[in-house]
Amino acid sequence: MDEIPRDRLTGALRRGAVKKNVAAIHVSGKLTLLQRKLSNVLLLNAYDTLTSQVKHEIDARTLCLMIGYNSNDMDSLKQSLRGLAETLAEWDMLDEKGQQEWGVSSLLSYAKLKGGICEYAYSPALAEKLHDPKVFALINLNIQRRFTSGHALALYENCYRFIRTGSTGWWPLDLFRRLMGVDGSAYYESFKHLNAKVIKPAVAEVNKTSNILVTPETRKKGRVVTEIRFRIKENPQLAILDIDDGEGARHGPVYARLRDAGVSDRLARQWLSTHGEGQVAAKLDYVETREGVRSKVGYLSAALEGDFSAEAQSATAPPSERGARLGRILAAAKARTPTQRDADKRLFLGMIDDPVARADFERHGWTSPLNAERIAAFWEDMGMEG
Fold it and tell me: Which phi and psi (to 5°) does residue 89 adopt?
């Protein structure tokens, strides 16, 4: 997955979120780290049409690469999809009329692999909850990829959605064990073991890795710990990882122009957060002066990523194996959907450790001279012919 949208409620909406005890979806099940990442990738891919489409699709090879599998490891992908279909999501909250609502649903209602495509769906009730930013916070994949522990990612997911209230509220220990996927283990019935092996390491990784800082607090009955909660605040050192992609962006004139041009809500907010209103407006002005543009969204995407000069160079370069390869790469990238194109770039960036090479790719995209061989290998892994 682009940076994923998060809850940025203000004013009455923010107060309502606290009053209604929203963010009440809990995902049970002993999910692995890769299964948790898979769940977030699938949700981001489906987000724009979550409530308007019954089923969703994503390229299976892309999906494998994004969650850390070998691009041909379909068996592991099948196992993970099966795990998500067997995992329950449960909510218990007040609806808009103040009535208590409890519900339960499998995390995926079905998934299938056919012709290199992963097709999947959510139940209508769960899709409605997942699509509402006041109820469920999507996870930024730029942050997600930094996690190495499933317990840490699970703790982050269950704390991040309470960032606006500053606390998770008190959880009975049996609920906390279920959220961490260690329920049913006699070993973790002991709070001493739970604290040493799950809580402390997970808190340390969340505070080191993510855009929030969490502090656990416990409550006892007699000498026995019975409840736990986590105080939450933003991590100022890593806040840059979490782009403000919320409600405020929707009120500007540039956002309206993007929507009129056919850009999706999520992509419009991402571009505004990443590039700023001034740069986006300038690129919009440029695109609108071009005649014969069949896809304003694709052309604007190329403009924002700075690919115009690169495309011109590839068009005028002498026919050579390198030039032909670059042409195939640019054509393959252009054929992807906006969501897939953004995911491809983020996935590739995650594979580059050298800061100079990263900066070159961020500047030149798929025409980056410092990353030419890496780029070719990447697209070969993606299944590009030739």
Answer: -110, 130
Confidence of residue 321 (pLDDT cuts 50, 70, 90): low
Q: Is the pLDDT of residue 13 over 50?
A: no
Phi and psi torsions of 335, nearest 5°:
-75, -10
311 close to 330: Cβ distance less than 8 angstroms: yes
- Which residue has better confidence, 314 or 171? 171
| Average pLDDT of the residues in 219-239 | 88
Domain with CATH 1.10.10.10 in the chain: 146-244
Cα gap 14→177, rounded to integer Å:
29
pLDDT (mean) for 153-163 = 88
How distant, in Å, are the alpha carbons of 23, 199, 313 from that of 176? Answer: 15, 10, 56
DSSP 167: B
Q: Do residues 89 and 26 touch, judged by C-beta distance below 8 A? A: yes
Structure tokens of 369? 């001279």
Task: Specify the pLDDT at position 193.
Answer: 94
Selection from 30-39, 216-225, 231-240 with the highest mean pLDDT = 216-225
CATH class of 1-134: mainly alpha
For residue 72, which of 383, 370, 314, 318 has the smallest C-alpha distance? 383
Contact between 65 and 71 under an 8 Å Cβ cutoff? The reply is yes
DSSP readout, 175-220?
A: HHHHHHT-TT-SGGGSHHHHIIIIIHHHHHHHHHHSSEEEEEEEEE
φ and ψ at residue 5, rounded to 5 degrees: -65, 145
- Write the CATH number of the domain with boundaries 146-244: 1.10.10.10
